[in-house]
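Hey forum,

I'm writing up a methods section and want to include a predicted complex as supplementary material. The small molecule is NDP. I've pasted the protein sequence and the SMILES. Can someone with a working setup run it? I'll credit the forum in the acknowledgements.
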Amino acid sequence: MAASPILIWGAGAIGGTLGAYWKRAGLDVVLVDQVAEHVEACRTRGLAITGPVEEFTQVVPALTPAEVRGTFDIIVLAVKAQATEAALAQLKPHLAADGYVLSAQNGLNELTIARAVGEDRTMGCFVNFGADWHGPGEILFGNRAAVVVGEIDGSIRERTRAMHQRLAIFEPNAVLTDNIWGYLWGKLAYGAMLFATALTNDSMSENFADPRRTIVFDRLGREVMAVAKARGVVPIGFNGFDPEVFAPGAPPEGSAASIAALAEFNRHTAKTHSGIWRDLAVRKRKTEVDPQIGVIATLGAEVGVATPAIAKLVDLIHAIEDGEKPMAFSTFQKLIDTCAST
Ligand SMILES: NC(=O)C1=CN([C@@H]2O[C@H](COP(=O)(O)OP(=O)(O)OC[C@H]3O[C@@H](n4cnc5c(N)ncnc54)[C@H](OP(=O)(O)O)[C@@H]3O)[C@@H](O)[C@H]2O)C=CC1
Ligand SMILES: CC(C)(CO)C(=O)C(=O)O
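Reply by user p_vandermeer:
Happy to help. Structure tokens for the complex are below, copy them as they are.
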């Protein structure tokens, strides 16, 4: 057990769910969030976790960033990727000299965190469970899924094992890995597909099950895996996503089976749409597209791998964010056209 409370910086869908489970299990946890009404709800009437996995309400100590005092051994970062740098600037003075930040986010945030606080004060994490923030003190926990922890240098230390045990309180099948980058790149490939599902209002499962869209999911998976392989990453699969079938030269039957498995996996969640869709359709705000997906094109260019489908997808998401294109199949069709012609 850490000597100081664990801070969870960003107490929305992911951070809030984790915090409620940890607090219920007796861990010393403090949530930090910039939404003052949410902070007030969590520390007074409690954080209500709803949905098919489990329903309970848990009071959790919570602060706004301005209220945080002192230093902490463990800070779990769970803001959207585009908020990472600003959150790091706020939390850095509160991180103990021998403490660390754990990224419970999508994308390669560990690179940004390591630049800000140092490689040794950064721990990697991959989360694939589904949750939605519904309002102050209200989170839908839609489905259980993979949770993985590992050091960014591949070592396994006492602190990594201790964090793995904490994560197992939340997800009994949590994995301790020496290849966290393999999981993070796998999620980047799946994440690119999730961005494509957000081009329409159809559910994730409906998207993956539509044969007209298979060409897009196949191409996105292959582009990300080609970049990963060229960068020496050995990607790892999870929850229906099989990286090997998207590897350069792999036959189409394998990727079709993995896309069907993703349709099946997502048929069983109360979180029917991705967080990206929720940002666009419900929250009406910008998505994580640049730090999460745009970065793949940049990393691909560095190793000579072209990523035309990724580039088109980024453009289409920007067009929706800017109100220039609808969330509709006509927008998805533009990506199909790019994949068919390149
Ligand atoms: N939701 C899901 O099912 C999954 C999400 N992820 C990933 O997890 C990460 C977190 O996503 P999610 O939990 O859904 O996001 P949410 O928007 O639900 O939660 C993030 C919270 O952090 C707050 N916040 C933003 N900046 C700061 C700051 N500087 N200091 C304190 N609080 C801040 C946000 O406030 P505000 O709303 O005002 O910005 C919000 O309340 C993302 O990278 C996402 O892609 C991964 C797997 C599944
Ligand atoms: C769909 C999900 C929950 C992964 O399973 C996700 O990562 C997201 O909503 O962005």
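Some notes you might quote in the supplement: The first strand starts at residue 6 and ends at 9. The pocket of NDP (ligand 1) is lined by residues 9-10, 12-15, 32-35, 65, 78-81, 83, 86-87, 90, 105-106, 127-128, 130-131, 133, 271, 275, 288 (CB under 6 Å).
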